[in-house]
């Protein structure tokens, strides 16, 4: 017990130290606090994107889903690859425009390109409303683990409170730089934890091959879709692939990690690195399936990993791996809290309350927002129960709707503000109605987010083709920026453009 | 604007499309079976692992070839 308390204490103290050290490099400007002066290097970018993207949803939810529902979570391999591809294809363009026009938030880009205040406000509301539930599941997951690792000595409410206290302190003093630095530690811990936990636990039944052989005899439904409950078939496989990848990618925390990047070249490498990291999910396969054999009938499936560790691993190892799980939750929660505080500060406070706010004032408001959103998520975690994956997917389906106007903004000069607004609104209302409507079921078994995207995309394209933009100056400004992007990174797209500029040209 | 993709870029993006189709189209239901077990793992798992490895390798190839673009990879520098 003393050893595990020591590990938990170290897990809490290390980020505080990192926050203090990173604060020394702080420049006291809003751009430094929110996007590290757009100068984040390659190691920090990879780990902070990966650790932010991988959350309690991945660390606990993946084990729980293999345990209860069979192989449907294997689609995570593909959604990691899709996420990586989007980080290159969409993220690099967003980064370029962000640097060109000095954006800090998602609504900066949308509001500027579509030249619409209503759309700007809608984007702010969507990012805030759908990020908080996802934040809640990080807190819940992290607190579960600390509670179990401490043998119940630290109860859930206190674990959650400690969890957020630590985050608030180091983000307060260090901003996104502190988050990125701690995410390097958390990211390494989380990937090690997932893989080693699976390997170690599966040894209890003779290793991976013996595990699958036993499962084939005792519960073959766990090895194929639609799983033992008969409700996780192809529709859910495809829905998860689309919604999780796009929803997480469109979260404000990932947007900040596009704007923060120092060099465009890094975007080219990220799909490979993010795809490679997905191998860690095989650890979850082994943990979840060993749980089916050794601990069937667990009431709260999200606790399968901590229960397996406590029952079958040495106490110190169990505590270390659970600390890795808490790291997964904390590395996402810190980024989300920081991102929503950025949105509140820049999109609401500076734009509508105090346009002439000083840099110091903006950073202070950002810090106060950290506390407010942490409190909201804490209250939700204590009062709204639910499986991590269920809550997580509903939240991701909402943020996923932002992909339609985003792709419009970065690629299509005909994209119309009315089309973006009504498409987005319809998509989100569809998600809410199909998710929470008491009498409506999802057609064809596809998730509400998929139907939202279809409606959203259809309206967006249809209305954009019918309507014509009158703000030609804005359209031309973006067309020119896109042309500059192509000239710099894809010169073959421009007829007669023989000389690339910028980064690409420097290599010649 | 150029209307066609350069051959190298076409091959990279075509390969990616193939990989994603194999993993996420209804074709996955053809691979949705336990037997034949390969190296002790169910067929569905091996299918996913194989196409994941293919796509991950292709992403590495894409990086090494600048995603099929004609511009030459540049060294990291502060811009």
From TrEMBL, chain B:
Sorted keywords for this record are: Membrane, Transmembrane, Transmembrane helix
Q: What protein name applies here?
A: DUF3311 domain-containing protein
Domain of life assignment? Bacteria
Organism name: Halomonas mongoliensis
Q: Where are the transmembrane segments?
A: 12-31, 43-64
């Amino acid at each position: 017990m003393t050893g595990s308390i020591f590990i938990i204490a170290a897990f809490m103290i290390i980020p505080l130290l990192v926050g203090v050290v990173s604060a020394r490099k702080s420049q006291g400007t809003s751009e430094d606090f929110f996007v590290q002066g757009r100068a984040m290097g390659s190691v920090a970018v990879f780990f902070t994107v990966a650790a932010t993207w991988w959350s309690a949803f991945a660390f606990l939810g993946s084990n729980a889903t293999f345990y209860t529902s069979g192989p449907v979570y294997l689609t995570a391999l593909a959604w990691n690859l899709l996420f990586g591809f989007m980080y290159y294809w969409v993220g690099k363009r967003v980064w370029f425009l962000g640097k060109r026009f000095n954006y800090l938030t998602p609504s900066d880009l949308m509001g500027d390109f579509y030249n619409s205040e209503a759309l700007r406000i809608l984007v702010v509301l969507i990012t805030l409303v759908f990020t908080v539930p996802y934040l809640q599941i990080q807190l819940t997951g992290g607190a579960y683990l600390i509670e179990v690792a401490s043998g119940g000595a630290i109860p859930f409410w206190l674990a959650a409170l400690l969890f957020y206290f630590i985050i608030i302190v180091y983000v307060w003093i260090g901003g996104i730089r502190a988050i990125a630095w701690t995410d390097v530690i958390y990211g390494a811990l989380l990937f090690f934890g997932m893989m080693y936990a699976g390997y170690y636990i599966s040894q209890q039944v003779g290793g991976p091959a013996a595990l699958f052989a036993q499962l084939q005899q005792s519960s073959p439904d766990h090895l194929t879709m639609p799983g033992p409950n008969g409700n996780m078939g192809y529709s859910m496989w495809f829905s998860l692939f689309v919604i999780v990848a796009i929803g997480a990618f469109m979260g404000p925390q990932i947007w900040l990690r596009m704007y923060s990047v120092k060099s465009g070249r890094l975007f080219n490498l990220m799909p490979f690195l993010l795809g490679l990291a997905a191998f860690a999910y095989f650890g979850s396969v082994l943990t979840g399936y060993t749980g089916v054999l050794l601990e069937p009938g667990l009431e709260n499936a999200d606790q399968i990993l901590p229960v397996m560790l406590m029952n079958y691993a040495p106490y110190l190892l169990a505590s270390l791996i659970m600390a890795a799980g808490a790291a997964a939750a904390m590395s996402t929660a810190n980024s989300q809290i920081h991102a929503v505080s950025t949105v509140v500060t820049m999109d609401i406070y500076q734009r509508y309350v105090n346009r002439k706010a000083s840099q110091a004032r903006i950073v202070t408001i950002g810090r106060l927002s950290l506390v407010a959103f942490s409190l909201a998520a804490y209250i939700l975690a204590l009062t709204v129960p639910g499986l991590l994956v269920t809550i997580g997917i509903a939240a991701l389906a909402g943020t996923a709707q932002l992909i339609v106007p985003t792709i419009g903004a970065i690629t299509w000069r005909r994209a119309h503000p009315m089309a973006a607004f009504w498409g987005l609104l319809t998509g989100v209302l569809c998600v809410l109605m199909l998710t929470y409507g008491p009498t409506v079921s999802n057609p064809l078994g596809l998730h509400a987010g998929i139907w939202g995207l279809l409606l959203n995309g259809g309206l967006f394209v249809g209305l954009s083709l019918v309507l014509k933009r009158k703000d030609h100056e804005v359209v031309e400004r973006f067309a020119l920026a896109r042309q500059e992007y192509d000239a710099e990174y894809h010169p073959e797209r421009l007829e007669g453009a023989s000389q690339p500029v910028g980064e690409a040209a420097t290599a010649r | 604007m150029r209307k066609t993709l350069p051959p190298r870029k076409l091959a990279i993006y075509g390969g990616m499309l193939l990989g994603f189709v194999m993993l996420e189209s209804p074709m996955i239901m053809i691979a949705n079976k336990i037997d034949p077990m390969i190296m002790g793992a169910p067929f569905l798992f091996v299918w996913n692992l194989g196409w994941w490895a293919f796509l991950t390798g292709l992403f590495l190839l894409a990086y090494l070839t600048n995603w099929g673009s004609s511009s030459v990879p540049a060294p990291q520098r502060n811009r």
